[in-house]
Amino acid sequence: MDDKGNITNIINKEIYEEKFSIWYNNPTAQPKETILMIKTITPSIKALIKGCSLKLVFGKKDNYLCIGARIIDIPDAPVFISKVQYSLQEHKDLVYALQEREFKISLINEMGNLLAWSKINISKEDSLKVLNWINEKTELYVGNYTKEIEYAHNCFCVSVEERYKYQFPEAYKIPIIEIDTIIGEWHSVENYSYTNEECYHFEISEPKDEGRTFEEEIASALVSVFPSNLYKGPKYKKGNAMKEMTDIFAHYQYGDFLIELKDVAIMGESGIHDRAKRISITQKHVKKAIEQLKGALGTFLGEQKIYTNQGEVIDVCRSKTPHCIILIPELIHDGDWSEIEKLLFETIKKTGTFFHILDLSEFIELLKASCGNPKIVDCNLMKRWELSMEKHTIHIKGAEN
Fold first, then answer.
1. Which residues of the chain have pLDDT under 50?
2. What is the DSSP string of 172-204?
3. Nearest by Cα to 40 from 83, 85, 81
């Protein structure tokens, strides 16, 4: 296989495996065929489609070339996606992009789905500035991944954002260049997944119903683990009416999962682009979800029959303590979450049930680690819950370090 095929396969593998990253890839080596691929959180993808600015960043530590993108979705805390290039073909593809000054940009979500694409332009002045800077002095590193690459990346992060200093205290600032971009009209991509009985479809540019899109996105991710036992909006009878128990219900032989979804509006006119406000709105949604799950839990444990949207009875075991999961697009670790944590742990104590608060990226990592096995999802949720109880926090990523 040629270098083009090799690097494309490597990037496809990284898109699946990496939590977030950035790539310049020119699969054909033809002019205007380079694609800037960014894998990031869904809220940032929405913000870009909505019109927030994107800055491209480049750094050099010795002969290590670092690339990055700053998504200015929340001005006081922009998202920064970065990596170190160490492939000759990636260096060439980046040069193609800089020389052409117009190239394609693709946005990829936490699940590795392509959600939207557009055309991106950079100025001639910026193009020449970066090209001349890349080519000066030493030849760029090409080879295997090393500890030096990791350290170069840490230095790059600290150079772009001061807030990374606490995470990489040994890193120091290196020379960087940041340039502006102009992005054209966005084109959304429809995504589909299927079970034996249902098709799940979501498209990112649906501002009127972001909640429904989020629900379809989560259901689509769960298909790989629960191909036959996954239900959106399961119902129960209350008098003569049918009421929704929870947003998504999934089960297997040894466990049940009640999932409540809470999205934060970004695509609409009143999209939330202030960090403190986004935290406040998210916390409000989480409080509501806890109460909704308490109600759903009462229905579930009360031995009431649960029905599909087609009116068929769902055959569940109920022999094990269920998992109650609150899923949000992004769990921002800033701000005061003590009230939420107090409410959550009181609910756990009163109900004797496993409650979890996860964001989409962590949930996708958990599903990937399961290899399609619901028992592994069950076990990993239990380990996560035990750590949450031990550390008395919902911020598990920080507790693991």
1. 1-2, 398-401
2. ----EEEEE-EE---EE--EEEE-SS-EEEE-S
3. 81
pLDDT of residue 399: 41
**How far apart, in Å, are the Cα atoms of 306 and each of 171, 199, 285?**
55, 21, 25
Residues with Cβ within 8 Å of residue 350, at least 6 apart in sequence = none
DSSP 314: P
- DSSP annotation of 247 reads S
pLDDT at residue 220, rounded to an integer: 86
Q: Quick one: pLDDT at residue 324?
A: 97
Give me the pLDDT at residue 1, please: 36
What does R_g of the chain's alpha carbons equal in angstroms?
Answer: 23
Q: What is the pLDDT of residues 347-387, one digit of tens each?
A: 999 999 999 999 999 999 999 999 999 999 999 999 999 99
> What pLDDT sits at residue 15?
87
Let me know how many helices (H) and strands (E) the chain has, helices first: 11, 19
Q: Considering Cα of 52, then 279, then 82, then 61, what sign does the dihedral take?
A: positive
Angstrom distance (rounded) from CA 34 to CA 240: 59
Instruction: Measure the CA–CA gap between 53 and 180, rounded to whole angstroms.
Output: 8
What is d(CA 15, CA 31) in angstroms, rounded to the nearest whole number?
24
pTM above 0.85, yes or no: yes
What are the structure tokens assigned to 184, written together?
Answer: 């054209």
For residue 98, what are its two tokens? 């800089």
DSSP helix/strand/coil, 80: strand
Residue with structure tokens 């934060």? Answer: 264
Helix, strand, coil percentages, rounded to 5, for the chain: 40, 25, 35
Which residue type occupies 114? L
Task: Output the pLDDT for position 2.
Answer: 46
Element (H, E) at 6: helix 3-17
- The CB density around residue 72, as the number of other CB atoms within 10 Å, is 17
Tell me the three state secondary structure of residue 389. helix
User: Please, are residues 193 and 220 in contact by the beta-carbon 8 Å criterion?
Assistant: yes
Q: Are 202 and 217 in contact (CB under 8 A)?
A: yes
pLDDT at residue number 166? 87
What's the token pair of residue 309? 């949207």
354, 324 contact by CB (below 8 A): yes
Cβ-based neighbours of 61, under 8 Å, separated by 6 or more: 151, 152, 155, 156, 174
Residues forming beta bridges with residue 232, ordered by sequence position: 248
